[in-house]
Specification:
alpha+beta, Beta-lactamase, 8-stranded antiparallel β-sheet, 11 helices, 14 strands, 31% helix, 17% strand
Length: 384
Amino acid sequence: MKKITLLIIITLILNSCGSSKQVILTKDELDVKLKNTLKYKRLTGFSVSAFTKDSILYQKAFGFEDITTKKPYTINTKQHIASISKTAIAVALFKAQELGLLSIDDPINKHLPFKVINPHFKDESITIRQLATHTSSIKYSEKMTDSLGLINPNTELKDVVKGYLTKEGKWYNDNNFHKNKPGEIGDYSNVGASLVAYIIEYKSGLSFSKFTEKYIFKPLGFKDTSFQQNTSISYYKYLSQGNFEKVTMEGNATGLYPAGGLSTNLKELTKFCQMVMNNGSLNNISILKTESTQEMLKAFKLRKSLDDEIYKQAIFWSTMKSPLGIPREMIGHNGGDYGIFTMMFFDQKSGIGYILLSNTGMTEDNVVSMHNIYKNLWKYSLKK
């Protein structure tokens, strides 16, 4: 559930080296370029998709799901997608609002069996919207989430958020909160995201996993998308010169699973994004109302943010000016963990979306490969 930094300096250098005139690729040329990416032996397997709200422009997979057995990575390969999982929390949140369970602007303590208060501002309420826009004043602590995943792999969602955010909690510290009022500063937080999921869980009487299955994944006919830990894919960290280290996904076993533990495949994740792009519906199946989807994607500029990558923030969906070097402002999410790199963004002006899933984590040595995959996918879509 690591939050990925996309190595902005490298991206800017690559952008500055490019021609001002964009080259449009044919399908055959894109096939060759993506296949050639594997020649550098910096990735094990990946899949990509370019699409509109109702059509697939390109969808293909390359490399291996397991480099030992040479099992191919396919568009049906199921893997964890890390922080892209938060987009499912966003959809679930608006579904809960439509069901009358809550309102996104409610104070969180209206919907919790315990109190969560920033100790530096005891009279200030934290709202659900602030959690969902990473402005709640709850600090982001990757070290904390990693350690909880390793030391307490079977901890329930309620116990993790309560243990971290309440005075009686065993991981509580006043420093878990910023010395800024709720709403004043943006700070990406897996804990805050998981607290939204717990509120949905508490108000619905269903586990968050069951809630998303009932109201999102099952209606869409998904067979391989869930928060259950049932993927057998191998994950890898790139070391150097064609050498990889197989890694495990212990972090996803923690009670913070809603923030980064969703598993899916390229085909189903594409359909999920198409549903959002189509105002909450896919193939005449309505998951959200149009007004809910539009509010979910309404991005605003944060007054102050600790994340330089995010240009504007919506409800868990983020706007970036140049995701992985594509010179377009797009909305979506990225994700990363020890053996994972994922991107899901769409251009609201052109109506085209782009997904990259890889079972190899991003490093300073393979960022150029990730960059080229995503940008070549975009170059192919320019003719559409």
